[in-house]
Structures are given as structure tokens and as C-alpha cells.
């Protein structure tokens, strides 16, 4: 009888030991997990992308003394949003003490599309508008690779590009490429399939705008009429002056057509980019093979500056307009000087219309008085 009681007590104790084993192993697992987290290993795991959406804000970047702004994909589809956010991760510098997988997202590629011109035509506005699109990744500052830094090599150029995912387009903007003699051959050597965008504007207005920009930096500059004429008596235009030379679009286009067919070009109207930004952006997105994400809902017209601005994105307290250097008032220039310059450009404009198959209507246009 005594043995039976002892045996029953032993079996009961055995059951208690078995019931405590799961608790014991659970405590060991929790202890190991806490040990790894305290030593920083858990931080190497990235936050879920969808958790970052609430923190998405406009990012302001200062490059070459200019303020530019990258707008979040607040209007994009979920897939495009994730793609944009993952691309942003690749451009951030991870803490050196942590293991990071961010640099495994995307790769640096040569640009598939380049805005090659023209200066004071509206290239900055076009690039800022394009940046709204989640499938466009662009360099902020102008690389000037094909006109100034070509000797640094293609690998140097590619390293300037942002990381992109499959389906995204890499872009850059350098307006001086359009007038650089060597640029077409160099771009062609990189890729004959490069898409080329040229933003053009009434060459008379463009020349005045160019002069206005230079005057703001050099107040002692001679008057516009003193610079535009080689001989004031005969009214001979000085084509060596860059402000005049840039506007001879047909001459520069001939140089590019030696290497690229017309189908590789899109000519954007600088005037329509102001009066109908959504319409021109639709053409640009079609040319780049992108879904029409950037539409009229993104723009409003700023009466003070005389330019369209981007409506404020979610999380931002103000809309996005171009910088103070845009929209400068033009100096007063004698009408006869502008008329003479318009007569000079007329045959070049007509040739450009024929080459591109598009009449931009500059010869019927009054000269605008804002830059």
C-alpha cells in the first residue's frame, strides 16, 4: 500500500516536469531574441515599405546652389509607390554598423532619355514636372558629361545616375548638349536608342530671357541692342553671341540628325508647357512609354510668377513652384531691335518647322515680357 502511494506521487511529479518544459524552452528563445536585438542585429531588417507611406514628405535637395524638390508619389498606384520607395532606399546611406540590404534594390544605368536643350526654353520646369512620375528617376544637377567632362569616362557618368528598378526610366538634363558639336556622336556611342527631348521656345523671347539671366549676374553688361548687332548701322546680327546662336535651332538639329533619326526626338513647346502643362506632359509621357500619371490635377497657374506650379503633395504645407530665378521681368528693349531680330530668325524657324514637321507659330507671336 505504501509503495503504491509513493509510485502515484512519482507519476504526478513526472507530469509536472513535463508541463514546465514548454515554458522553459520558450524563455530560452525569448532570451536569445533579446540578446540579438540588444546587440543591434534586429536593426538590419528594413521597415515594411507600406509603413513608410505615412511619413512620406517632400524632399528638398540643394545642388549647385539651387534648390530643387523631389515630390513623393502621392498620387501613384500601390505598385508604383512601392517601386518609388524602394528606389529611395537605394539612395540613402545605411549606418555603417548595420547589415543593410538597401543597396541590393535597383542598379545604376545609363540614361534612356536625355533633355538635351535648350537653355531658357523650359527644361527645368519639364524635369520637375517629370519627377512627379514614380517611374522616372533623374539626376538633379546638370552632369555636362557630353560637353565638359567626357574625358572622365562612361563609368564615371553612370555612377552619377540614381538607382532604378526594372520598369523605371533614368533621365538627365543638360541643355547645352543641343548646341555642342561633339555631343551627338558621343551620345550615339553610348546608346543609339537614347530618347532625346528638346524644349524649344520662340528664339527672340529666348534670347531676351538669356540676356536677362546674364544681366542679373553681371549688372554692368552692355545693353541688349549693343550685343545683338555686329554693326548697328547696317543692322547685321552678331551670330557669335551665344544668346543669338542658340536660337538657330535648325542648324543645331542638322548636327544631331547625322546620328539619330527624327523618331528618337520629341520637341516640346516651351510656350505650351506654360499655357497647357498637362497637355505637353501627356505627349512627353507617351514618348517615354510611360503611363499618363502626370495630369491637369497636378497643376495650378501662379498669376504672380506667370508660370504653372505643382499643387502641394500630401504632407506638404505649400505648393511647389520654380525658384526665384524663374519669372524675372525682362528689360525694356526697343521694338525695332526685336523686329529686326525676328526677321533674322524667320528663315531658320521655317526650316526648323519643316525638319520637325511642327509649326510652333513663333512668327505670329508677340514677344513675352517674362523669363
TrEMBL record:
GO MF entries: [heparan sulfate]-glucosamine 3-sulfotransferase activity
InterPro entries, alphabetized: NST/OST, P-loop_NTPase, Sulfotransferase_dom
Compartment(s) of residence: Endomembrane system; Golgi apparatus membrane
Keywords annotated in UniProt: Disulfide bond, Glycoprotein, Golgi apparatus, Membrane, Signal-anchor, Transferase, Transmembrane, Transmembrane helix
EC number(s) reported in the record: 2.8.2.-
Binding site for 3'-phosphoadenylyl sulfate: 120-124, 201, 209, 326-330
The protein, known as: Sulfotransferase
Amino acid at each position: 500500500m505504501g509503495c503504491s502511494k509513493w509510485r502515484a506521487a512519482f507519476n504526478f511529479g513526472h507530469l509536472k516536469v513535463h508541463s514546465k518544459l514548454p515554458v522553459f524552452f520558450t524563455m530560452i528563445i525569448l532570451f536569445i531574441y533579446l540578446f540579438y536585438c540588444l546587440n543591434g542585429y534586429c536593426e538590419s531588417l528594413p521597415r515594411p515599405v507600406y509603413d513608410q507611406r505615412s511619413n512620406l514628405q517632400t524632399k528638398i535637395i540643394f545642388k549647385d546652389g539651387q534648390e530643387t524638390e523631389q515630390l513623393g508619389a502621392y498620387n501613384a498606384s500601390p505598385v508604383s509607390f512601392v517601386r518609388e520607395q524602394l528606389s529611395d532606399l537605394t539612395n540613402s546611406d545605411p549606418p555603417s554598423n548595420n547589415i543593410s540590404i538597401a543597396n541590393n534594390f535597383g542598379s545604376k544605368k545609363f540614361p534612356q532619355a536625355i533633355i538635351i536643350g535648350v537653355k531658357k526654353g523650359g527644361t527645368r520646369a519639364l524635369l520637375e514636372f517629370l519627377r512627379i512620375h514614380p517611374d522616372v528617376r533623374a539626376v538633379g544637377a546638370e552632369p555636362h558629361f557630353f560637353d565638359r567632362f567626357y574625358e572622365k569616362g562612361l563609368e564615371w557618368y553612370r555612377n552619377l545616375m540614381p538607382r532604378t528598378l526594372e520598369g523605371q526610366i533614368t533621365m538627365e538634363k543638360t541643355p547645352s548638349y543641343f548646341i555642342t558639336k561633339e555631343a551627338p556622336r558621343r551620345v550615339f556611342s553610348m546608346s543609339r536608342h537614347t530618347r532625346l527631348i528638346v524644349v524649344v521656345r520662340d528664339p527672340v523671347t529666348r534670347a531676351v530671357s538669356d540676356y536677362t539671366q546674364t544681366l542679373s549676374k553681371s549688372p554692368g553688361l552692355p545693353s541688349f541692342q549693343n550685343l545683338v548687332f555686329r554693326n548697328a548701322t547696317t543692322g547685321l546680327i552678331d551670330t557669335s553671341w551665344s544668346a543669338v546662336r542658340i536660337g538657330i535651332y535648325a542648324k543645331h538639329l542638322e548636327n544631331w540628325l547625322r546620328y539619330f533619326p527624327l523618331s528618337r526626338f520629341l520637341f516640346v513647346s516651351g510656350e505650351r508647357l506654360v499655357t497647357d502643362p498637362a497637355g505637353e506632359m501627356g505627349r512627353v509621357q507617351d514618348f517615354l512609354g510611360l503611363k499618363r500619371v502626370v495630369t491637369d490635377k497636378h497643376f495650378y497657374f501662379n498669376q504672380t510668377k506667370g508660370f504653372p506650379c505643382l499643387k502641394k503633395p500630401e504632407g506638404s504645407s505649400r505648393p511647389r513652384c520654380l525658384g526665384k530665378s524663374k519669372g524675372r521681368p525682362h528689360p525694356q528693349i526697343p521694338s525695332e531691335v526685336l523686329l529686326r531680330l525676328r526677321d533674322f530668325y524667320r528663315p531658320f524657324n521655317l526650316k526648323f518647322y519643316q525638319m520637325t514637321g511642327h509649326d510652333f507659330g513663333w512668327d505670329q507671336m508677340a514677344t513675352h515680357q517674362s523669363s
